[in-house]
Amino acid sequence: MYTVKIVGAPIACKEGIKDTWRDVAEWASGQLKTRYPDQVKVLYFDLFDPDCPTIPPTSRLPIVFVNDSIVSNGEKISIPLIRKKIVEIEQKGTSHSGQIELG
Prior knowledge:
Blueprint: E1 2-8, E2 11-13, E3 16-18, H1 20-35, E4 40-46, E5 63-66, E6 69-73, H2 79-92
Parallel strand pairs: 1-4
Antiparallel strand pairs: 1-5, 2-3, 5-6
């Protein structure tokens, strides 16, 4: 089982608060479940959630982890990058189970 953790935050704009990264995380979850129906769980965390994963101090949002490795930070949430990391882990034979499923 692979756990994809996405850390983001609501964005304030003149129209109000947008939760764009959460929306993109939900989309990514659907894309990954299509490819890996029983092997991937996607978790979304707001930056200030008490159970948010520890992030390096110089990181920028959004941050994407696969298992415990940072795949990207401050960039787009990329399905190809996530898939590349999953393939890398599969080749090493080191996957582990996740937590709760997004959605």
